[in-house]
Amino acid sequence: MTKFGRMDNKQLNFATAIIHKVLSRNPTTAIAIVLAPHLTSEKVLGGHRGEIRRIEDKLDGRSLANMLITLRMESPPSSKRVSLNMFGWLVWAEGSWDENVFKECELAQLRSPRATISWLPETSYIVPISEKDGLPHASEGMRSLSDVQEAAQLLAGKDVPIQLLQSVLSKTKLKQAAVVNATPYDCYLEKVCLEYHKDHDVSLAHLSVSLSPSLVDYVQKVLAMELLQAWKKGDHCMGEVRAYNPTQPPTDSEIDVASYNFKVVQVTVDNRKVGWDRFQVKLPAEVRASYYRDIVYGAEWRALMKDFDQRFDKSANPAAEIPRAPEPEKGDVEQLNWDGEPATIEDLMHTYQLEAKAAGRWGGTTLFLVESKTRSGKKENITEGQEYKLFLGAHMEIEITTEEIALSHGTSRFKACSKVADLLRKKRSDEIARLAECKFTNDLEDVVLEVQQNKSMVDTDRCTIRKMLQEFESEGFLDVTINGHELVRPNAHDGNSAY
């Protein structure tokens, strides 16, 4: 919590929500470390003690047990008036401590890291800044920092995360661990996680989440620069990657194509030419077809293929190399004869029993849901097991295309899971009969998002749930929850209210 400088309720709720999610899903293999902020919030009574009590109440409200820990600091410079003891909490899910793998760790036993922690010089304090399409940089200098910005850097530097990680991972015999940082700021914790395996037998994976997209972007860019510099020095953690070579080999040198591990492209050599012109680069047809007809990524993929051909393979004929979509075999779809069906709404009502109707997606149209059998009991033009037929009635002259969505949910609202559960518990059959199930099997299902534009609601283009969530994250909405429920409803004419 120190990285907030001065912590408000929104930041506290976000950080404790992240802690609760991680600990509730991994009760015996996860713990959290919370450090108390140095500055008290303006609306909190009781000073620093009131701030500590506020955090403890929030942890208790999320069923998170905790113990108080202390960070023992080295003597500060004579001009720095700060406490030599910094307070925090070791947090775990209630009822899981006896089986928690971190129960015997040094931090839990001593309530403090073994060694004292050094202060970062004030001249190294920063304010992280991230600009679009620009390199990350920091506004430095003690004189330009406010009290909140200075408080956010009070426990800055690598010594704090190193001492805490060592005291937590000791006696656990873990070889791999994951670190989630809910308060990214100056990238010191991220840098420590990146290099921790060099001096210890534990490899760390790391994830930073924040309410501020600019802070996450700053941390990401700083880590990218760290990895780039480590790669150039040959001291990196990226596994087997080619060594950095700032100079390209001369064009007349011998290059053995067989020594390169091409995973996607096909490379052939034409010895009649010289230099780099000898090499011809192509993409296999199955690679070109990967996302060629994809609903979400198709346009972007085709543009990428076009750019590749312009650079490397100008003789390519992309259309000829794309495998044709398989045609459905005869017998997959039963062809029905609709010649004898009603041609007017009046004939439709006279022939079939109406079950429901709703406004169509096109103006001046209505959708009619009727029983599959006629009023006289005949069943014609139906497939096996078909119970209903759907007709579209037009009240004016309109043009209907096959490129648009024909069905609509009509006038309805999504109900939260808690309200649906309450209806099921009370067995309110009259309201349950009006519920419609909304269920997705995975994140590749297509959805249409309704958004507000110019004080009215409009539908976005169709995309997958995964694409929608990716767009949410790119806009800074990191904490997105999708609720769902399952419901088994009785038949429309069944008076039985069993579920």
Q: Could you estimate the helical fraction of the residues in percent?
A: 25-40%
Query: If helices are DSSP runs of H or I spanning 4 or more residues, what is the number of helices?
Result: 14
SSE sequence, one letter per element? HEHEEHEEHHEHEHEEHHHHEEEHHEEEEH
Radius of gyration using CA atoms only: 32 Å
Derived structural class = alpha+beta
Distance between the termini: 47 Å
CATH fold-level label of the domain at 2-233: Rossmann fold
Spatial strand sequence of the major β-sheet:
1-3-2
Tell me what the CATH architecture of the domain at 2-233 is.
3-Layer(aba) Sandwich
In this structure, how is the largest beta sheet organized? Answer: 3 strands, antiparallel
Mean pLDDT score, rounded?
Answer: 77
Uncertain stretches: 487-499
CATH class of the domain at 2-233: Alpha Beta
